[in-house]
């Protein structure tokens, strides 16, 4: 139970459902409720397909191009760390992605599904948290279910976007995004240490 909660928190941090709300409001400003619901379901559906692709085929792609999983884990950890630090010290997720709205032609896909929901961190996490050599298929199934549970949270929050935004405001979303960045940075460092340990055959950090 504790591990499932940890996995849920990890995906909550990399997907950042609350930070997606201001992005959604910005990309659908002035549209009617029917259009907004269509965008919500399409964005969450596309995000689920993208992340499940990385769960099912990410490791196989690495094997096909002969990249050791430990090397990907280290590289992924570094990317996650940079991503997390940008959430903490740079512009928060909502601020960065709202700027891309002006250039978006298909709002459900970009910037809402990618990179707001299915972020680079979420894609990397989907691979790292379902490694075949470390996790059984049952554990991978449970991890995938936690990831999909976070996407369900995204769906609910977007359907209630107006109320959520009134409650927390842009500043609240920015604060939460930075807190998620702090959590994500510790996860990223752990991935780097585990990747180094795997590569050199050392004791794996837990």
Automatic annotation (TrEMBL):
Keywords: Cell membrane, Membrane, Transmembrane, Transmembrane helix. It holds the Pfam family MarC. Signal peptide: none annotated. The keyword Phosphoprotein does not apply. It is a multi-pass membrane protein. Its main location: membrane. GO terms for cellular component: plasma membrane. The chain crosses the membrane at residues 6-27, 39-57, 69-89, 109-129, 141-161, 182-201. It is found in: Cell membrane. The keyword DNA repair does not apply. InterPro entries: Multi_antbiot-R_MarC. It comes from the Bacteria. Belongs to the UPF0056 (MarC) family. This is UPF0056 membrane protein. The gene is marC.
């Amino acid at each position: 139970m504790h591990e499932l909660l940890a996995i849920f928190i990890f995906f909550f941090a990399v997907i950042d459902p609350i930070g997606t709300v201001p992005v959604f409001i910005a990309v659908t400003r002035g549209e009617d409720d029917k259009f907004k619901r269509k965008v919500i379901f399409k964005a969450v559906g596309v995000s689920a397909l993208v992340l499940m692709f990385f769960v099912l085929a990410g490791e196989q792609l690495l094997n096909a191009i002969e990249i050791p999983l430990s090397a990907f884990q280290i590289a992924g950890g570094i990317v996650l760390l940079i991503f997390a630090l940008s959430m903490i010290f740079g512009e928060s997720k909502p601020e960065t992605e709202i700027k891309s709205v002006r250039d978006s032609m298909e709002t459900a896909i970009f910037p809402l599904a990618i990179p707001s929901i299915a972020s680079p961190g979420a894609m990397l996490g989907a691979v790292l948290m379902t490694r075949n050599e470390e996790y059984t298929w049952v554990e991978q199934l449970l991890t995938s279910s936690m990831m999909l549970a976070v996407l369900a949270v995204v769906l609910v929050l977007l359907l209630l976007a107006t109320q959520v935004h009134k409650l927390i405001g842009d500043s609240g979303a920015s604060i939460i995004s930075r807190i998620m960045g702090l959590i994500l940075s510790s996860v990223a460092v752990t991935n780097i240490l585990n990747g180094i340990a795997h590569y050199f055959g050392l004791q794996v950090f837990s």
